[in-house]
Amino acid sequence: MDPSQDSAAPPSPPAQSGGSFGIPARLAFASIVIIASLAVVPSCWYTRSSLSILHQVPEGHVGVYWKGGALLKTITEPGFHLKMPLVTQYEPVLVTLQTDQVRDIPCGTKGGVMINFEKIEVVNKLKKEYVYETLLSYGVNYDNTWIYDKIHHEINQFCSSHSLQQVYIDVFDQIDEKMKDALQCDCTKYAPGIEILSVRVTKPIIPERIRRNYEQMEEERTKVLISIERQKLKKTATVSNILREQKLKEKENAMELQEIENQMFIAHQKCRADADFYSAMKEAEANKMKLTPEFLELKFIEAIANNTKIFFGHKVPDMVLDQRLLVGNFLENVSQQVHGERQMKSDDNA
């Protein structure tokens, strides 16, 4: 070997891949690529929430955060907030009223008829103080477990224990409350942060043939009800006529009784008047028989004796005597008149 070859210069290093750019250029190029990718990346919420630094929590929501896939206890109120990009993920969670619509729920009744509930609406609310516990146990889609899946289960349980007549007609108005109570019972036990406010169940879709039968039954029932109401009206009218005639009879009887009482009162008053007249006549006859000169003189003397005034003077005896003469003349006339009347009566009797 030629010794001169050992002292030869070492070969030049190979060219770097990527051209003549160094390490700083590579970092700049990587930054440009990242920015460009952010500009063209689809508007996926998860991607934007991971890469963004500033984020906004809308009103009616709270912000929840994950770091490396682990749920953080940090809960933020509505407004603007900061987070670490790529490291911390964020999602807003609704804590006001929301309505979940559960659609197309098939179920079989007790008799084996398949029906379908087209839509059931569940009004619910997640309590703010239970956000962390609820998401930790059931995730962001907690309503899938406790509302959507649960309503399917409860509807099937209800249908399997009731007949089609009960589900479609008899107890349909009770399904709302039964579903609400069933959902709230399990949520209170296993997920206390979920509050079920109301459940609205639409009329289920039943087979067309059975639906026509129900319509015919309803028509017949309506006809029967109309007939019953007509009979009630006729019965009411008949009863009203009977009551009216009864009242008229009562009024007529009352008038007859009043007429009899009036006649009895008139007869009684007439008898009483006749008795008074007879008594007055007899009293007059008795008084006339009392008018004798001796009786009148006695009454005159009693009247003079009852006088409390005493007069003194030489004229008094004359006055008394004059009065006695007057009275004597009067008594004489009366005696003659009475004697004449007695004489006339005796002549008539003869």
UniProtKB/TrEMBL annotation:
Main location: endoplasmic reticulum
Keyword Transmembrane helix listed: yes
Protein name as catalogued: Band 7 domain-containing protein
An example Gene Ontology biological process: SREBP signaling pathway
Transmembrane segments: none
Native source species: Gossypium mustelinum
GO cellular component: endoplasmic reticulum membrane
Compartments where located: Endoplasmic reticulum membrane
UniProt keywords, alphabetically: Endoplasmic reticulum, Glycoprotein, Membrane, Signal-anchor, Transmembrane, Transmembrane helix
One GO MF term: cholesterol binding
Family, per entry: Belongs to the band 7/mec-2 family.
Pfam families according to UniProt: Band_7 (PF01145)
Taxonomy, superkingdom: Eukaryota
Membrane topology qualifier: Single-pass type II membrane protein
